[in-house]
Each structure stands twice: as structure tokens, then as C-alpha cells.
Amino acid sequence: MRMLGKLITGAAVVATVTTLTAGVALADPPSGTTPKATDIVGVGSNTTENMLDQMTLNYDSSHKTGTHIYSFDALQNAALAAGSNITEKKGCAKTPRPNGSSAGIAALAGNIKTGKHFCLDFARSSRAQKSTDPSGLSFIPLALDNISYASVAKTKATPKGTNAPANLTTHQLQEIYTCTVTKWNQVGGSSSATIHPLLPQPGSGTLSQFLTDIGIPANGFGKCVNEPNSLEENEGVDPIFTGPNAANEIVPISAGRWLAQAYHSAKCKTAKCATDKTGVFTECQTPKAGQNRFGCDVNGVLKVNKINGTAPINGTGAKAVLNPKYTPTFIRTLFDVVRTAKTKDGIPAYLEAFFGPKGAFCKDANVIKAYGFESTASCG
Prior knowledge:
7 helices; globular; two-stranded antiparallel sheet; D-Maltodextrin-Binding Protein, domain 2; about 15% strand; alpha/beta
């Protein structure tokens, strides 16, 4: 299930974010558009896809001619025809759409050329580089995010709320996800109910970074952990969160993405965030003045919690920001990944205008903030 959907022509956006006066704002290249071989194309992370949609739109709208930049989302947009494959550029074969950071990184590393140009030029990543990643890649910092764990709030759909404590330590999270402890009263909860820890889809950068942060190797989580292939990261409208185990479920979440969805995004097209006729895609209402152009609020019944007594978000509404004094281990850098070049910063010369310290994306601090994240001095 995805939050992406058609955004109507002329939709309002955050006041500090560049707008277009014509056309339909879509995640992925606009319908009927296949990027040229000389264009710049990326894939990967769910967490940063909406921010990159806006950044690429801003760049393309101010550069009517020449090279354009496009970012394919982790899953297909509801406005597009059915099919999970994408054509990255003209002359490139159709390939499966990479869903998540690891899938995007693998696609970039294994990509082929069409003539003189690669079919993929960058990958979005919400996790740091691993020793197991393919060689020859550079992880270029873009922004900062906080990772937390989410549980269900008291809502009409989840009237009992959660049995999970509103604060857990790093060690307690490790015990939960290794199944060393299995009851809430073993980690400070008042209930003896069985814990149901969840992880989002395989390939998720949030999943990977969360496990790293709590000291668990990849695939080192316990047998009590449920990792449904259908559970997309950062989406609290999945039916699993209103099912029989909802009160005892926790799941890692991007606090920045939750913040943007809660306070800067349009609502879903229906009150329950129902899917479109395909049964797969959640569509968004037209954004109102001051709301982001891309993405809508699919936090659903989920709320974010504290780790080690520190809150991932300070404030509410328009004043909400990521907490810079959050537990440092759970403050992560968000990256764009490129093929390593023999340049001063490792960025290929043709990508410097986008990803370098003086590039278009590092300068787009208003967009970074609007989509829930924070700028970083190491950008580029």
C-alpha cells in the first residue's frame, strides 16, 4: 500500500517550495515521459522519495532545456498503468522497480549502459554504507533523520491503544528483536501480553539502519519477529495495525517521514485511506495551501515513541521539528549513492550540479525541512 497518488494540476505546495503552473505532479516521470539517455535517473528509498520528487521537480521546472533529473518511487504510482517494471531511460530494457534502499543500491551497482550513458545514475538510501555493499559506490550525505519505534495510538480503529511502553532503551529493543524477552512487563510495560515485533519489507533502509542501531546484524533478528513482504515502511494504514495483535505490535519508523505526513501533508482521498480500484494504491486529496505536493498522511493509527528517554520530535503542528538532542545512535544520515569517480568528493562531474556541496539538492534546505528532515553540514 502506498501513499502516492495523483496530485491535481495547480495543487498548492509548501510556500517555500518551488511550484509549477501547469502539468500533473506525479511521482516518477510524468505519464508518457521516458527520460532521455542524457537525463539523470534514480531509484531506491521509500523514506526520501517524496523529498526527491520535490527536488527533482524544482530543478526541472527551473531548467526547461538540457538535462533533466527523475526519481522513480519505491512502488508504482496510482496514476500509472499497471505493471511493476520501469523503463529507466530511452533505449534501456524494462527492469523490476527497486523497492527500498538496498534494492536501489543493488540496481545502481548492476546497471548497464545504453550507448555512452548508464540507465541509472543514482540511488536513494536511508541507511549508511555496509561492508557487504558492492564496491565502487560513494554514499553522498543529503539530510538527517531520526529513527524510532512506532506503536498504535488510541483511535476508533484501535480503541485499546497499545501495551507497549512509550519509552524503550536500546538494550530493551535489542532484547525484543532477538526474542530474548517476549512479554511487555519484562521491559517496563504493565501488561503480560506477548510482544509482536514487526519489520517492514526486506530491502528497507529503515529496517537495516534500525537493526544496526540496536546492535543486531542483518537477518539476525529472532523467530518471534514478523517481516511481512506486504508491510511497506512508514505506513500505518496497513491492516496489520488494526488486526488482533495491534495492541502488542511495534515497528521501526522514520520520525521525519511521520512528521511530514502528520503536519505537512494532505489527507488520503478517503477517511480510511482506502486503496484505489486496483486494491494496491492509496490516493491523496489535493494538497491545501502550505501542504507538500508529494505524499499524503498515511501514519494511520501509528504514533512515534521515545528511545532512552529522548523524543525523536520536538513540538507539534507547523512547529514540529526533529529533535537534535535525540539519542545520537538513532540519528541517521540520508544519502544519495553514486558511482565513485576520481574527483575531489568522489562524485562524477556530470552529477556535481545535483549532489555536490554547492549542488541543487544541498541548497534546497526548505524542501528538506518541508519533508520532515534536517539539513546537515556534511551535505555533498
